[in-house]
Amino acid sequence: MGALTVRLPTLSSLLTPPSLSRSSPFFLRHHRTTFKFTTVTAATSSAPPKAQEQAVTPRSHDFNAWYLDVISRAELADYGPVRGTMVIRPYGYAIWESIQEYLNVKFKETGHSNMYFPQFIPYSFIEKEASHVEGFSPELAVVTIGGGKELEEKLVVRPTSETIVNHMFTQWIHSHRDLPLMINQWANVTRWEMRTKPFVRTLEFLWQEGHTAHATPEEAEKEALQMIDVYTKFAYEEAAIPVIPGRKSKVETFAGADKTYTIEAMMGDRKALQAGTSHNLGQNFSRAFATQFTDENGQRQHVWQTSWAISTRFVGGIIMTHGDDAGLMFPPRVAPIQVVIVPIWKKEEEKSGVLSAAATVFDVLKSAGIKVKLDDSEQRTPGWKFNFWEMKGVPIRIEIGPRDVSKNSVVISRRDIPGKEGKVFGISMEPTILVSYVKDKLDEIQASLLNMAISFRDSNIVDVTSYDELKEAISLGKWARGPWSASDKDELKVKEETGATIRCFPFEQPHGTKTCFMTGNPADEVAIFAKSY
Amino acid sequence: MGALTVRLPTLSSLLTPPSLSRSSPFFLRHHRTTFKFTTVTAATSSAPPKAQEQAVTPRSHDFNAWYLDVISRAELADYGPVRGTMVIRPYGYAIWESIQEYLNVKFKETGHSNMYFPQFIPYSFIEKEASHVEGFSPELAVVTIGGGKELEEKLVVRPTSETIVNHMFTQWIHSHRDLPLMINQWANVTRWEMRTKPFVRTLEFLWQEGHTAHATPEEAEKEALQMIDVYTKFAYEEAAIPVIPGRKSKVETFAGADKTYTIEAMMGDRKALQAGTSHNLGQNFSRAFATQFTDENGQRQHVWQTSWAISTRFVGGIIMTHGDDAGLMFPPRVAPIQVVIVPIWKKEEEKSGVLSAAATVFDVLKSAGIKVKLDDSEQRTPGWKFNFWEMKGVPIRIEIGPRDVSKNSVVISRRDIPGKEGKVFGISMEPTILVSYVKDKLDEIQASLLNMAISFRDSNIVDVTSYDELKEAISLGKWARGPWSASDKDELKVKEETGATIRCFPFEQPHGTKTCFMTGNPADEVAIFAKSY
């Protein structure tokens, strides 16, 4: 067993509120590198440690390298054999399952039913809606051979399902009594992206896509807004990501939509991530596919529609919002493992008592519905395990050593407050006390991650009143917020000159009269500009 | 409101145990066609009723037409725009969700983790395992264009994932400590089938595929058997399908497996449906993909593997196992709706009292976790609704009329016992009593459907001692069971001459010495022969 840090009673850590500044964790880290990474995988001891088995690149040094490192070493995902594809490993897939569980309940509560559409779409369907084909045709994967024969009509592997959904809706919708029709599907989609990045942009990804049809434009608008609200709540409450909900500019609107609502998230490198979208499709697809109903006056009308989606990209958003130099930091509500138990003993005669206590604590927490892992492997030192599970972003670590067993207590460390300040000794093993303590701490960590992310976001948005100020903000890697009523051409000019795009016109607008920072004309709204993924 | 049947107190129905014979429901049906189908969809009343809005073809007249009718009219599924594809509608998808919920828990309990592999597989992968490419190459959908360009290597849309799984396993497995590796994925798969049928055989379908790697052949065999056991229990306990588990003949074994275990189900037309399979893959894929580990003695070894799957085909199996001339009959544990409430009133002054009581009953059952639907639409008569929900296979119907309201009671009808015999009056609305009564009845219906299916199965399997007896049994549409140790060639001859194949060598074997009915040689086992889907 490796050397252990001497534990000092830290009553102060119990009394001091968790620090929410981002600098302190990095500072504290400096003082506690007691343990070193050895090998991470369970390779035979004779094998030399491989590059991938070392510690991750520090987040503060190279954000992109850190991102790829944590994905690989925490075994969240791996590259597939086909360029741009990704294998989502159990630890990463569990996050997607958390997302699914939460949203699936919300979708049903708001009146949607799950179903499944085929992924092969006749090429002619894509061509029916003019802006849709323009937006998607460069990204299509096309099946041309089936059952050993050249197909008469090429098939598109769905990049999104509006076209096939409308083809079916046209058959199912006859009267106003068939409306609203509100469905959702969990599915894979394919977009032939050239620049890919695990979770954020892959050739194939998983998502849910909601599709609804309504009798009036007001209902469709209400639905589109309701669903972006569901996404916003999910981001804040579950993923601890303080997204900014708003409306896309015309330039950035979905190919085939009248309006696109979005939630925009600031990643740890201050780039924006479009984390979910909800589209008011108007009658664009219903006109292209003749999706009509007979209204109460016997008149034929085209339906008003919405579609909305969140994808495995959101997992990338969770990874890139939280974390520090040591690795991942998962919000408890989406964490695949919420608590890891590390039993510690030096002498052989201590072993059985420690392991037995650890197993009891495991059972207690598991019965309480907590996602708990007992790491009782003997190949690794406790120090190695501390670093490993820290890198994996597990919110709470419980240590149990011989002294703890004798005192019937455990030591609990918080991932969000590294070092001694996050460590509390002498928490009773008594089930009621322990479970209640752990649940409270998980709630505190959830809140603390959200607060840290809010502070980070707010300290990196600059209010601008001129194009020069915008350029400066963007060049510093920040987001710029300013009144905007300029043209699409001006918007593209900003993109060309600064690399930033309008992420959204946020729902939350400052009061008072506004003057467009680009043209000097009156403006109704401020827009947020940023570089993005 | 349409005319209602006069309700007679039927104490006898309370005392008579439910009939388990298959003939009685058909007999009873003859006496109770009080209500006629009018229009099923909510089309405007001026629209003429369409063909699809009429009653279903009686199951006893034309099983295949009945199957297609119930799928269409109960809105389980619809045809996709591409030949052989299927849209799974909410009522059908809910059954798949029941299957997923149950199996997902069982898979995790038995140590498997969910993950996700890309669906695009390089064509060269498929060619690596000789019998695998032979089995699957005629059925492949191939992507040849991506992002507007001809691809250098053609991509197969996964027909199953053994090849890509092994490609990744080879990167993840190093030491015996990495074993067993046990994963599962919920995914869509594509097989270019020429003869398709909704749910049973479609170009694209949904499934789960488990993949495991082990250090020893014994562990792999144990795993393959464990998973066919999970499927068997699911079929019996949830789907009320008395499948016969067993081993496939060599001819019928999966392309790439050493052994295939199967669960074979007898459909209502007495054709066999292969409802789930579990394969012991031996080292076939690990040798083709060099998936090796270092054992405890430092020796490199190829892993031993399994794979196992259940698909949306199982939904077809549930539909075709249960049901009668009037339509579907879902086992309560997989039924999308377990209880439908039909409020009944004639006079306008009765309406509010009846609707209010119906809403209360709805809330009571819903709070108790029962899947309940309140059909309070005013476009349809109660009689129309009775027929409609009967056709949809809802296990229990609750009627509430003015007299019931005054007596604070409801009328309950069982789908599995049509007519008066399945109808009970005067069940108290008092929540505790009602919930307990409904739950008991759901359990009884679950058991009754299984018992009916067991009786049907057992009365349609013939023990044969000669090829002539087999031919006769098959020509009567039955299954034949007899001792078999003949050659693959003989097996193919049976298929050619009778249309029947070996469905399996059942695990449950009769005692005593056996003589092959084909060759007269000693035989170790009996095999089951049947025509199949």
From TrEMBL, chains A, B:
Reactions listed under catalytic activity: tRNA(Pro) + L-proline + ATP = L-prolyl-tRNA(Pro) + AMP + diphosphate
Nucleotide-binding is among the record's keywords: yes
Transmembrane segments: none
Keywords: Aminoacyl-tRNA synthetase, ATP-binding, Ligase, Nucleotide-binding
Superkingdom classification of source: Eukaryota
InterPro entries attached to this UniProt entry: aa-tRNA-synt_IIb, aa-tRNA-synth_II, aa-tRNA-synth_II/BPL/LPL, Anticodon-bd, Anticodon-bd_dom_sf, Pro-tRNA-ligase_IIa, Pro-tRNA-ligase_IIa_arc-type, Pro-tRNA_ligase_II_C
UniProt-listed Enzyme Commission number(s): 6.1.1.15
GO molecular function, one term: ATP binding
Pfam name, any one: HGTP_anticodon
Protein name: proline--tRNA ligase
Organism for this UniProt entry: Saponaria officinalis (Common soapwort)
